[in-house]
Write a structure and sequence with these properties.
The chain has about 300 residues and is α/β, with parallel strands linked by helices. The protein is about 45% helix and about 15% strand.
Length: about 300
């Protein structure tokens, strides 16, 4: 089994694949991850041209360390197979991941995986293109564990609460924000998807928040996602990039403390102790494991 690439996904910026100017701005942004959207953001009559515009952006813009992704159309449409084939044949060396929307089961993901296998062999691509999937239908949520384990190429699962709310019949006015239900109406599907992702070693990412002018509420949703174990959140506007980067990045103080705790436990373990008191805390293997999550995030960021 190949090791999955470790990629930063604190902020996943959505950009219409048909808009060359916005794609150029996205490539120069601070977002960890940018996906050129060929699905919802593009009208049916513009799908083919959007492919070419996205390919040109992938091949000719300076993306720096940004994860380069394209959201293709779902496998139930007439565009999906051609999206994947055209993208990989023309820009495969400059494409990190493909985002597949609306997979209903493992078979949908495996279709994209097998197509990518064929293309990579045909083109002699040395670097495997990753897959990311959007869990945004009740069918997908029912099959989320199966989808999470569908193929080795899969790296990330994203909770698409807009389509999910429509699929389940949830009454909300603003995508990404709960609508008056006592508690968080999206807590259960977020939690369920994140557990499935973690079991299969995948990143879990939270989806869109429609009101990009409400930074305070967006930060609340970011913190909720982080608390459940998600690694990032979508940005539908550049204004949402900085808040997501901040929330999903540990502070220097937290990182230093986490490394201190792990060091104290390792020293105790070397002395044959199962636990040790440190700064008023009782530290054991479980404590060290919990703080290791912070250290792992910091290492990936480069802190």
């Amino acid at each position: 089994m190949k090791a999955k690439p470790r990629r930063l996904r604190r902020s996943q910026l959505a950009v219409p694949g048909s808009d060359a100017k916005k794609l150029a701005k996205a490539a120069a942004s601070d977002a960890d991850h940018v996906f050129c959207d060929l699905e919802d953001a593009v009208a049916p009559s513009a799908k083919q041209q959007a492919r070419e515009t996205s390919i040109d952006a992938l091949n000719n813009l300076d993306w720096g360390r940004t994860v380069r992704c394209v959201r293709v159309n779902d496998v139930g449409t007439e565009w999906c197979h051609e999206d994947i084939i055209t993208l990989v044949e023309k820009a495969g060396e400059n494409l990190d991941t493909i985002m597949l929307p609306k997979p209903m089961n493992a078979g949908d993901v495996q279709f994209a995986d097998k197509l990518l296998n064929q293309l990579e062999k045909k083109l002699g691509l040395e670097r495997r293109i990753g897959l990311e999937v959007l869990i945004e239908e009740v069918d997908a949520m029912q099959n989320v564990v199966e989808i999470a384990g569908s193929c080795e190429r899969l790296e990330c699962m994203i909770f698409g609460m807009g389509d999910y709310a429509a699929s389940q019949g949830i009454a909300v006015r603003n995508i990404g924000r709960e609508g008056g239900y006592p508690g968080d109406v999206f807590h259960y599907p977020r939690y369920q998807m994140t557990i499935a992702a973690r079991v299969s070693g995948l990143d879990a990412v939270d989806g869109p928040f429609a009101n990009f002018n409400d930074e305070a509420a967006y930060r609340v949703e970011c913190r909720r996602a982080l608390t459940l174990g998600m690694v990032g959140k979508w940005a539908i506007h550049p204004a949402q990039i900085a808040p997501a980067l901040e929330v999903f990045s540990p502070s220097r103080k937290d990182v230093d403390f986490a490394r201190e705790i792990i060091g104290a436990y390792q020293k105790a373990a070397a002395a044959g102790l199962g636990s040790v008191a440190h700064r008023g805390m009782m530290i054991d293997a479980a404590s060290a494991r919990l703080f290791q999550n912070t250290v792992d995030r910091a290492d990936l960021i480069g802190m």
